[in-house]
Amino acid sequence: MLLYAFRSAGTLLLFLLLGLPLAQAQQARRLINRLAPGLDGKSARRILRVSVTDEAAFRQWLTRHPWAQAQPEPGHARLWRVRGLAAAELAECPAAEFVEAADRTARPERQLNGADFTANKVTTTHARYPQVTGQGLTVSVKESPLDINDIDFKGRLVSPDPQAQLLSSHSTTMATLIAGGGNSSPNGKGAAWRARIAQSSYDNLLPDDGAKLAGQGVSVQNHSYGVNVENFYGLEARAYDQQATQYPTLLHVFSSGNSGSLVAPAGPYAGLAATANLTGEFKNSKNSLSVGATDALGQVAALSSRGPAADGRVKPELVAFGDGGTSDAAALVSGVSLLAQHAYQQQRGALPSAALVKAVLINTADDTGRPNVDFVAGYGQVDALGAVQTMLEGRFVEGVARQGEGTGFLLTIPAGTRRVKVTLTWNDPAAAANAASTLVNDLDLTMGNGQIWRPWTLSAFPHLDSLDQPARRRPNHRDNVEQITVDNPAAGDWSIRVQGYRLGQGSQPYSIAYELESGLTWVHPSKARNLRAAESVLLRWQWAGPATTARLEYKPVGQTSWSVINPALDLTQQTFRWTAPATTEAAQFRLLNGTNATVSDTFMVDRPLALNVGYNCPDETLLTWRRVPGATQYQVYVLGATHLEPFRLLPDTSLVLTAAEAAARYYAVAPVVQGRVGERGSTLNVTQPEYGCYIRSFLPRKLVSDTVRFDIVLGTTYRVQALVLERRTPDGSFVPVRTLQPVTATAFALPDEQPVVGRAEYRLRLQLTTSRTVYSQVEEVYFVPDASAIQVYPVPVPVGEPLQLIGPQDQELQVRLFDMAGRLLLERTTAVSSITTLETQGLRPGLYFLRIRVPGGREVTRRVVVQ
Length: 867
Fold this sequence. Notes:
Elements: H1 2-5, H2 7-17, H3 22-33, E1 47-52, H4 55-62, E2 69-72, E3 79-83, H5 87-91, E4 96-101, E5 107-108, H6 122-128, E6 138-142, H7 170-179, E7 196-200, H8 210-215, E8 218-223, E9 225-226, H9 235-246, E10 251-255, E11 289-294, E12 318-321, H10 326-348, H11 354-364, H12 384-393, E13 396-401, E14 406-413, E15 419-425, E16 441-448, E17 452-453, E18 456-457, H13 464-467, E19 472-473, E20 481-487, E21 492-503, E22 508-517, E23 519-524, E24 531-532, E25 536-544, E26 549-556, E27 563-570, E28 575-579, E29 585-593, E30 596-599, E31 603-606, E32 612-616, E33 620-624, E34 631-639, E35 644-650, E36 654-658, H14 659-662, E37 666-673, E38 676-677, E39 684-685, E40 695-700, E41 704-705, E42 708-714, E43 720-728, E44 734-740, E45 747-752, E46 758-768, E47 773-775, E48 779-783, E49 791-793, E50 803-806, E51 814-819, E52 824-829, E53 835-838, E54 846-853, E55 859-866
Parallel strand pairs: 6-7, 6-8, 8-10, 10-11, 11-12, 24-31, 41-48
Antiparallel strand pairs: 1-3, 1-4, 2-3, 5-9, 13-22, 14-21, 15-20, 15-22, 16-17, 16-21, 18-19, 23-25, 25-28, 26-27, 26-29, 29-30, 29-31, 32-33, 33-36, 34-35, 34-37, 37-38, 37-39, 40-42, 42-45, 43-44, 43-46, 46-47, 46-48, 49-50, 50-53, 51-52, 51-54, 54-55
């Protein structure tokens, strides 16, 4: 870090050694410090962004460079976009403060698929606090347009643009993870599943207009995208910090990036392996959250970008499960942030500050990686349950620090507490671009009960050995987040103090969250999400205690005895992989630790119940589903204004909808076993054309063949009395050629045993027990039993229109065309096909002869009339 702190002095010394006079050396140093690290100062091809001290002076300077194209950045005072000047030229302007590239392209940071909301206790939060849903809040998803027709967002999109082009599914996935309604299936349920969703474009890497975000009610904005690795505090990072001061309840959540193995190309940590590789200088902002990715067991993924920030601050602050990379992880944290905001709002009637939400999320995170804090996992794995409980239970304090003054409170710690954790955060004023140290207002957190405890602080010296050192207890004069933990604290009153160490810009509001850890808590399974029958699952619990074992047991509801799954489970592992039984039942787990028994929620073991559409006729629609062992009823759902709603509770496995009911379109079904609702399958649009009115498919097996056979698929046999295959006669009427009665299957084949040679049209007629008749579409078939049945049509053919030649299937034909005088006009060999097109362009009206030779030497002649 000292190397970076003295960078400007070292540059000055270099210029002096090169023989420049002191004044020129100082000027050269100032110009270099105005350029973003790694920016090519000579090329004039890039679009540059420049911050200026005096806009009038900058405009006047531009008049001396008429070839330059410049315009103000909309909504950002003293920021300009410039094309046609090299960065070094722009830096020479006396009004220029800092120059950086403005033409980097954002890209999504997602690679794989999958989501597991149990890893960060989101499903547990849904089970324990069903009233905390994000309802009434709004998240903004900043990237490419999302799918506005996705039913998981129904009725909750803010000002959707019907003309927006869906460029990729990434933004749709992010919005689903954050606030999906679970309408498509249980997998489509996001963290804050009732929140509204606004959209924004990541073509603009600067913050969106704050007034517009406020007008939309946005309290969290998700940024699951990145550019190349950038390790400096630039104009974008500065702008985000400025917006946080102006809109203190707005929280920005960034993915850290999927470049964990790369090196920073410039800045104090340049060249250090797998270090300081956040993908975007905007992610270096102080008042936002950057989020890395872990696997399902909490291990940080190799692809997850690491810190530190350019001035040595902790980045990323948090990690979360992200099977698809840090994009997924950031989206999940955005959703959890909304839950924390909603929990606070329910208690206080207003939104919390973003600083408080940060304090709560960081304080409740589960430690992973190196102890306490590091530059890979930050402060740990996000814990949705802990965050919501902290807000609901009021385990936080907010205050204002002043220079040289101390404020604080007393925290009473009960006996038996395994660990106490206290986190201080504040929205720090924006620093100068490319500042060696960006902390403006420096606060100090201490904790004591006679002995003084200080925050965990990392070494930021730019050497791998130093960056890998464990955190030490000492004053932190670099971060606007400070955390103190004490293991096995003595019971009694502890003093929590905040001191204004150095306030560069007046008084400073701050937020503190605290947590007292002890005991054992079940995490998964829960009543919010069932287990899939016969599938492997990670059981999860939370343990705050010494290394010990417990007996894991399982019991279906209604039985009296517990079955032992593992007699000595290591509680510190906090996960156990288990395969659920291949059955449908309600059940519970329990963990026995000595005489203490911790019992899970009652949950269901089952398979998703799929809904089928038997038929979709104009007047009614039939829904069916399989019978589930043990189910006494079935809950049918219909999509309402925003979410699935209970529609009808039935003892049977079918339901007939009226035309008005089918107009609601989206339905799903779940079994009810022992009074508990089981797993529903995917939601169906019951009006999709492929369901048809009884007839799903009626197609000839081959369009041209020496036999005529139709493959038939019905949606159901319900009320079907007879099925008739009919052929059209020359007078246009249809005659039956095959009848099937009774109809006992939904898939079969029907032949015409005595087809007519050449082209024929067929349809299917269903006779129902209600005396109603259902017809299929008409299908054509060409019956060509041998070469003598070769067909040519249309005859006559209009001048210039093509002829179609229908021959024996999979046979090559030699074709010659003659006029009335016997002159050969066309000769060709067709491909091995049953239908061949012959062009008639250039032929005059009249009579012509086609001579067609088939394999084996036989030749047939067909007359062709062109008119």
